[in-house]
Specification:
- By secondary structure, this protein is an alpha+beta fold.
- The chain has a single domain, classed as 4-Layer Sandwich (Metallo-beta-lactamase, Chain A), CATH 3.60.15.
- Helix content is 28%, strand content 25%.
- It contains eight helices and 17 strands.
- It has helices spanning 41-50, 68-71, 74-79, 94-98, 108-112, 116-129, 196-206, 226-237, and strands spanning 2-4, 7-9, 12-13, 18-19, 22-25, 30-33, 60-62, 86-90, 135-137, 142-143, 149-153, 162-166, 171-175, 179-181, 184-186, 213-216, 220-222.
- The protein has a seven-stranded mixed sheet, with no helix packed on it.
- A hairpin with a 5-residue loop joins β10 and β11 (149-153).
- α7 (196-206) runs antiparallel to α8 (226-237).
- Bound molecules: zinc ion.
- Zinc ion binds next to α2.
Amino acid sequence: MEISKGLNIIELGNDKINMNPILILDEENIILIDTGLPDQLGKIVEEVSKAGVSIKDINKIILTHQDLDHIGNLASIIKNTENYIEVLAHVDEKPYIQGDKSPIKMSPEKLNAMSEEERNSRIDMFNKSKANVTKTVEDGETLDYCGGIEVIHTPGHTPGHACFFLRRYKALVAGDAMNVMDGKLVGPNPIFTLDMKQGIESLKKLLNYDIETVICYHGGIFIDRPKERILEIINTHN
Ligand SMILES: [Zn+2]
């Protein structure tokens, strides 16, 4: 779905969860932010083509963080492209995305608590998804693509979670730092957030940006005075 010229929300979902990677375009860049769950490549191909481009044209993938529902098609998109794809993520997430470290939600303790079948399927899914991060980003950095993409390190959900502020659109790509539930912007999901306190603390940083639109990976778009709402979320958690 194109929400503004060059800014598209890719709508993915299964029976349990909805997911919204972002596709942003300018003359030189076709950038995908986050990549869905493993085995959703067909759906991504279809959705990307609605924006008038081919998945083979993607030349950058930005990841908000390491979780499987965000990196799921990273390796398969790279495999299906002739382009060199630059893969960007916050420096603290890189070792997890590449598999140099076990992903946090697949720590030995977490894996041991799963049935053998679930454990094997998780490991298999991760191995199919992982790929090298070729460029690390840091808090406060602006990427010179698509009108300027500002990196906001928002630890909490994971240590290297990052949000991205798209200057041209005054839109915040929130990843899992917040969610939209029943049309309402809410904080990080406590079930999946490593450090809730830190996650809420990170939201304070967002108040420094001129945000008119928030796009959450789970739940999609929120435009009803988002900064006031972010402040409300911070205050209710303090
Ligand atoms: Zn997620």
